[in-house]
Backbone:
């Protein structure tokens, strides 16, 4: 067994536009579910298995962090094994944590398992400030103490009866935060005593995290509601569960059909998690049927603008599909309007789409898209994960050839976007760099 030696990341994608799509592809495992489930594996001193785990950069980054903490990981196909029997270290260096935001989720498990934690400030896509103050508030509510440091978050559990352990408590979130809710759940699952978390986010990934923790022996109820009750346990056993399908990848591929006015079939789609997106999909003229585990999407009649679309916390329209939908609206005649309510800097793709001929005007939280003007292939750059996916979609519907640089962002969440779109009839070629992470 050895540490992962490197990650092959997409550096550049070249796309020949104007080709209709058809065929069938399956949806990969969920990035946003897999990462907190990997963090939760630290709460067990055994070997856990995440089946159908996506082989994406963020998962590989989390693997690297777990190795730094003393855990060992390996793959058997798409099944990820997490051996946390010797994960006794408490420090995550900034060199690792700066790569992705989800590294912050390890604070709670490290405190619960080892009594302390030190982590460099988390990084990831630059789509807004996304401070960790709610994470720290949740951990303080369970007794954690913090020492101020210039470049690190340093935390320790209270000493009581000769042991350092988090204590059950009451947590009240004043605003919706998926990451902070996950942090609170992870910490409370192994705290001493009972905890009640009010103001919880309700995203499907939180429901899946609670199911995973129950698979490990945690006592949790109320997931999917604004109030979750947790009875802390002394130890958790290893988990073994399948990672759910990625609703954002499914939505992205539906947008690909819409951009190209095509009919495609998607397998392994979490339809019940996409109600808000599918509602907008119908408004622009898309149709779909769900039969025998397959979603058949017919976007040949797409052509109606959306007067007003607002991103919201689940079950509202997901912010992660705002950029892909913007690419679609840029191809629809008439004026559409999007209001981004989750992140303050998530219109980075707009400037790149404008280089391709899209007419987009940004004012504060709002983006006005006057669509229907032909998009033209050119050289553009991905600046974040979902914005990069939006450029791929726009390129599919553009005239000529589009070159997209900075595509390592895209590989953070999409395992094989080029392969999937090529399987549907697209013409995408890639250039890869071998980048060593250790």
Residues:
């Amino acid at each position: 067994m050895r540490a992962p030696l490197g990650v092959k990341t997409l550096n550049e994608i070249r796309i020949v536009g104007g080709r209709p799509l058809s065929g069938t592809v399956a949806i990969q495992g969920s990035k946003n579910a897999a990462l907190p489930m990997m963090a939760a594996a630290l709460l067990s001193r055994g070997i856990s298995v995440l089946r159908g785990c996506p082989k994406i950069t963020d998962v590989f980054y989390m693997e690297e962090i777990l190795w730094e903490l003393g855990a060992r990981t390996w793959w058997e196909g798409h099944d990820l094994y997490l051996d946390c029997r010797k994960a006794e270290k408490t420090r995550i260096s900034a060199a690792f944590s700066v790569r992705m935001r989800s590294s912050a989720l390890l604070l709670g498990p490290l405190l619960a398992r080892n009594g302390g934690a030190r982590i460099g400030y988390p990084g990831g896509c630059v789509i807004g400030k996304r401070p960790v103050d709610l994470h720290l508030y949740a951990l303080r509510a369970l007794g954690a103490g913090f020492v101020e440091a210039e470049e690190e978050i340093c935390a320790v559990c209270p000493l009581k009866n000769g042991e350092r352990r988090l204590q059950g408590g009451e947590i009240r979130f004043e605003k919706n935060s998926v990451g902070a809710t996950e942090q609170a759940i992870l910490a409370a699952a192994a705290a001493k005593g009972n905890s009640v978390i009010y103001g919880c986010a309700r995203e499907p990934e939180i429901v899946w995290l609670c199911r995973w923790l129950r698979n490990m022996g945690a006592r949790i109820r109320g997931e999917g509601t604004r109030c979750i009750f947790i009875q802390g346990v002394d130890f958790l056993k290893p988990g073994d569960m399948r990672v759910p399908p990625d609703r954002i990848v499914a939505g992205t591929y539906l947008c690909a059909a819409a951009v190209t006015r095509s009919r495609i079939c998607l397998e392994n789609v979490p339809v019940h998690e996409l109600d808000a997106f599918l509602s907008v999909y119908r408004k622009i003229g898309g149709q779909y049927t769900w039969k025998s585990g397959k979603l058949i999407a017919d976007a040949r009649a797409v052509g109606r603008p959306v007067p007003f679309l607002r991103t919201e916390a689940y079950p509202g329209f997901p912010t992660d599909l705002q950029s892909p939908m913007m690419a679609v609206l840029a191809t629809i005649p008439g004026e559409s309007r999007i209001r981004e309510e989750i992140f303050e800097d998530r219109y980075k793709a707009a400037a790149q789409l404008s280089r391709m001929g899209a007419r987009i005007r940004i004012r504060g939280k709002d983006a006005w898209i006057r669509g229907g003007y032909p998009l033209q292939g050119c050289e553009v750059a991905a600046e974040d994960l979902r914005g990069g996916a939006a450029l791929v979609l726009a390129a599919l519907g553009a005239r000529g050839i589009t070159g997209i640089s900075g595509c390592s962002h895209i590989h953070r969440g999409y395992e094989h976007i080029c392969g999937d779109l090529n399987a549907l009839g697209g013409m995408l070629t890639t250039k890869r760099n071998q980048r060593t992470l250790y």
Remarks:
- The two ends are 15 Å apart (CA to CA).
